[in-house]
Structure formats: C-alpha cells, structure tokens
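FW: tagging you since you asked about this chain on Friday. Here's the raw sequence from the shared folder, copied in full. Didn't touch anything.
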Amino acid sequence: MSPDPSLARRLGTADAVVIGLGSMIGAGVFVAFGPAARAAGTGLLIGLVIAAVIAYCNAMASAHLAAKYPTSGGTYIYGRERLGPWWGFIAGWGFVIGKTASCAAMALTFAAYAVPGPWWAQRGVAVAGVVALAALNYRGVTKTAMLTRALVATSLIALAAVVVGIALGGEASPAKIDWPDMGADDAYGIMQAAGLLFFAFAGYARIATMGEEVRDPKRTIPRAIRSALLITVAIYLVVAVAALLAAGPESLANSSAPLTTAVDAAGATALAPVVRIGAALASLGALLALIAGIGRTSLAMARHGDLPGWLSAVHPRYRVPHHAEIALAVVVCVVVATVDVRGAIGFSSFGVLVYYTIANASAYTLVQQRRWRWLSVLGAFGCVLLVSTLPWPSVVAGLAMFAVGIVVRTVVLVRRKPGNDLSK
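HL: got it, structure written out here
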C-alpha cells in the first residue's frame, strides 16, 4: 500500500456543484437562521447579504488559487505556496478544527429532526449517521457525489414545498417583520448574524479541497464554485423571507427548528413532516461532503508533515484518504457526545473565517490576477470583521484551539531535527 499515490480525477462540473450545494444547503437553511434571528432579528436578511458578498470574494480567491494549484488541500496548500508553511498550517488547522465542529453540528441536526425524543437517543443516531457516511466515503468519491446528488434533490423539493405552503397558508404577513433602527447595537447584531450565517456559505470549500479529483480543474473548479454559491444565495433569500413573513424574527430566534416553526405559524402544519424529512436529508448531504473535504485537507497536511504521516495513506482500490476519514469519524463521534449544535456553529465560523482570511491574502499575491486584487482585500477585511463580532465564547474557544495547534507544531519541528528552521 503506497502512502501517497495521486487521487483519481472522476468528478465533472455537475458533480462538484452538487457537492457544494450539499454542504451549503444542509448547513444553512435548517440550522443557522435561528441563531442569526437571535442576534439581529429581521436584520438577519442584511446579514445574509453581507455574508454572501464576503463569501463571493472568498469564492473568487479560492477559484483562482485552485486553478493554479489543482491538488487536494485547499487553502492549506495555497497558504504554503504563496505565504509560507506556517500560514498554510494555520489555514489547514482552522479548516480541520472548524469543519470537525461542523460535522458534529450536522450530525446532531440530522438526529434532532429524524428522532424527536430523549437526548441519548438523538446522540446515538447522530453517531450512527457519522459511521454510516464515513463508510460510504471509504468506498470512493464517485459514490459520495452520487448520494449527495440524491440528497440535494430531495432537500430542494422539501424547501420548495415549505415556501409554497407558507405562501398559501394564509397566515404569513409583512406586519410580522420589524426592521431594526440601525443603531450601534443593531449594526453589531447584523454583523454577528452575518458571521453566523457565513457558516452556511462555506460549503464551496469542499470543491476547492477536491482539486485532485475533478476533471479539467482549471475550468471545472471556478465554474462549480460560482454556480453553487449563486444557487445557494438565491435559495437562502427566498426561504429566509418566507420564514420571517410566517413566524416573525422573535419566534425564529426562540426555535431550535425554525422552518418547522415557520410552517406551523403560517397555518401549514401538515408540512411539518416534509420539513423534518428535508432537514434530516439536507444534514446528511452536508455531513457527507464535510467528511470528504476534511479527509482531503488532512491528507495534504499529512503529506507535508503537519499531521501524522499515517493519515496520508490512500486506499489502493478506492483511491480515497481512508486513514484520514477513519480518524475523522472517531473524533466527530466523540464531539457529538459532548457539544450542542448552536455552540458548534460559532466555533466553526471562527475557524473557517481564519481559513478564508489566509485564502484572500494568498490570492492577492497572484500576479496574473491583479485586476481581482480588490476582491481579495475586501474578502480579507470582511473575514476579520466577522470574526471580531462572533459570540465571545466562540472566539475564546477558537483562539485556544489555534494556540494548541501552533504550540504542538513548534514542538514537533524542534524535536524533528536539531537546528530546524521554524519557518518551514
């Protein structure tokens, strides 16, 4: 078994778009609107637009970088190549810890919608979901894309039914929307909502991190990123407006299942099972794509010595980073038993925003992309701004995890070779 053969290029543009949609739609529509409404009320719509603009800047940075470096690892590789090994490590570490939290959030969301009942039953179902999807990823990336396509289609049908049901339920009203006054507190809340909603848009990273497995990556990756992001923004806006018209921001803020609350408030209670099924399937789609993306970033970091070399193994038959995905499944199962879904969103956003700050800085150094540099500057500034407005527990936890990673890497480099240059 060779430790680092290349992965197989089996994915086309449609496959890559579907994987991105599976990540973004599952994460945002069924999870993030509740915390965002708590932070900003109806101002979450403004926060959604801000998050989308910053996500677009990040998407273009990722597209340009992925076209130049079409290999697994995403910003971990871009940071190493453009800024230096330490910046690459910080980006990769932020991605791995942030998206591991996202995996736990998606597993818990799936269980909450699929098995209403005691917490221990939900945790057990969440663990079972992680194990099942990790086993599927183990069998090959083509099967990942095929199942994600089916899950995304089912989720979109469910969301369409929800929006139509709210429109026809008879209880939705513009009077339920109370716009903020845009004072200092309201502006801060809107930016915090944008930071929380950014969690939902980060799925296009799955496409960039799979650069070693798409056909014609210089053309496929940019097209797939743009398409997946634009489709997701349109869906989010429609669903957010419908939910606010149906239930109002206060009810959404106090609900752990905001779309179920919305259809109930709109007088379309019969659609609650549709929402529950759609949420469960969307969460599975997001979890499936997350496992694939984290596994490949871990593979790239292991190849460069920033994670244990055991994680760099690629299965000789299925051509996937099977050791990395097994390790990830074990860690996520442990996290599922110890966290709640809302806390995981803020922690995940912190890690991912740091990741994209480095992506924008890396894209800025591309000489051939000078006319796009203003987008990289805007994207980096936006990421830093959103990080600063996240809930303080998420910021503290994120800083602590980055400190742990930096200390461990420093110790490893010192022990690896006497006189080792710590800039490597």
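FW: Residues 7 and 319 are 6 Å apart (CA to CA).
HL: agreed, and The chain has a mean pLDDT of 82.
FW: great, closing this out.
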